[in-house]
Every structure is written in C-alpha cells, then in structure tokens.
Write a structure and sequence with these properties.
This protein is an alpha/beta fold. It has a single domain (7-198), classed as 3-Layer(aba) Sandwich (Rossmann fold). The chain has seven helices and ten strands. Strands 1-10-9-6-2-3-5 form a seven-stranded parallel beta sheet, with helices on both faces. A three-stranded antiparallel beta sheet has the order 4-8-7.
C-alpha cells in the first residue's frame, strides 16, 4: 500500500487521476483495451473531474464497471449512482466502449446480480478507482463485511452509519429516505484488480482512514483489506490523513 497525502482535495484528485491514467494507458498499450471500475460518491468528485481531463487515454478501448447501486432506486433518482456516472463522467467522455451498470430498480434483484456478475467474472480489471466510507466500508460492503465470498456482486444490507452518511451528504432528504439494501461489488472481486486507486478526502473520514492504513485487517473495518493488495495507491487530503501516526507526504 502506497500512501500519498496532499494539502487539498483538488491536489489529491489530480494526483490520483494521473496515477490511474498511467495504468489505463499501459493496459491499452499492452492488450489493446482496458477494464476499469469507477466509484461514486462525494469522495470521487475531484478524481473524476481530473480523470476526464487526462490526456492520452483512448476511451473507446475502455470498458467501465461501477461498484454498487441502491436496491429500488431508478437511474433517474438524484441519488442513483448510474445517474451520477452518466452526468459526471460518461457525458463528458462519450466514446467509452462500454459501461456495464447495475439496474437498482429491477423486479428481480437476484437476476440482476447474476447479469452483472456474468459480465465481470472473466474480466481482468486493470484499474479500480474506489473510496472508503465513514464506517470504513469498501463499495457498499459495510462492517462486518464478507471477506470470503467469491461472487462478483452481492446483495448487502446497509448499516445505519452508512445510511446516515448518505443523508448527511445530501443525496437524500432524511435518513428514512435512504434505502436499506444495495447491490455491491464484493471485496474479493475488487481485490482482483491489478491496480487499486483509493481516494479519500475530508476530516469525517479520518478515523476510517486510520483503521484502513494503520489498523489490523478486519472485516469490522472492511477497507483495511486493501493492505493485502500488492498495488494499492491511497490518496488523501490532509484532513483525511490527520489521525495517521506515520504521515508520508
């Protein structure tokens, strides 16, 4: 795990995007295509803005998967992660080869999980862009996370701290409006990625960052599993890094 700390979230996002772009370009040069995972949420704002502006990426050679979606949310809902990626990324990079998205508002959640799992199960992901939650979740794998399942996507129940975070960030009017479950990429599927770029800004994430980087690997702090991945790059702003004992800038 390589930890990088920056003065501002803007600098963090730009550096994370540059590192991710290098991996994408390298994959395209080697295999003629790249497979990418994109995260959503407030932590990814500056990263996605910077990634769109990176030079030298042939997006027509890139297939993109996204991490998670609320069960029961239509893609027109303001909190939909599909809508988020369409507005913040895909509309600005219109020549992406393929976007494999999760349909949250489906009549058969199990069937939808099977569909997206089939789409990714034989794919070698080159770069996964992720964040972590205030409860240390990775994707929507809230504590205690399932570290063992090899199913690419799973249905998960969201804990109260996770749901409160979504309300506090303004995605929903109140805690009561936040769905209780989601379809999420599993921990083991994320770890299959060749390179993981983890971007985490904000003081409210400081405790989760400390547990992720300096704590023991535990499913009670799901993002701590990133310590076991050989090519994980963590990008923090100074607020998110404020509780770390060993600050390497």
């Amino acid at each position: 795990m390589q930890v990088n700390i920056f003065e501002t979230a803007q600098e963090m996002g730009e550096s994370a995007a540059k590192k991710g772009a290098e991996a994408i370009i390298s994959a395209i040069e080697k295999r003629g295509e790249a497979f990418i995972i994109l995260a959503t949420g407030a932590s990814q704002f500056t990263l996605l803005d910077a990634l769109v502006d990176q030079q030298g990426i042939n997006w027509s050679k890139c297939t993109i998967f996204h991490l998670d979606e609320y069960v029961g949310i239509d893609e027109t809902h303001p909190a939909s992660f599909v809508l988020y990626l369409k507005q913040r990324f895909l509309q600005r990079v219109p020549d992406v080869k393929e976007f494999v998205f999760i349909k949250g508002n489906t009549n058969d959640t199990d069937q939808e999980i099977a569909r997206v799992s089939t789409a990714i199960e034989n794919v070698n992901i080159d770069v996964a862009f992720v964040g972590i939650g205030e409860n240390s979740h990775l994707a929507f794998n809230d504590p205690p996370a399932d570290f063992e399942t090899t199913n690419p996507y799973i249905r998960v129940e969201l804990d109260t701290k996770c749901r409160q975070q979504q309300a506090n960030e303004g995605w929903f009017a109140s805690l009561g409006d936040v769905p209780h479950s989601a379809i999420s990429m599993s921990i083991q599927q994320i770890l299959k990625s060749a390179t993981i770029i983890c971007s985490v800004p904000d003081l409210r994430k400081a405790e989760a960052v400390k547990q992720t980087i300096e704590g023991e690997i535990s499913n009670l702090h799901p993002a701590s599993i990133l310590q076991s991945h050989s090519d994980t790059w963590v990008f923090l702003d100074k607020d998110a890094a404020s509780q770390l004992e060993n600050k390497i800038e």
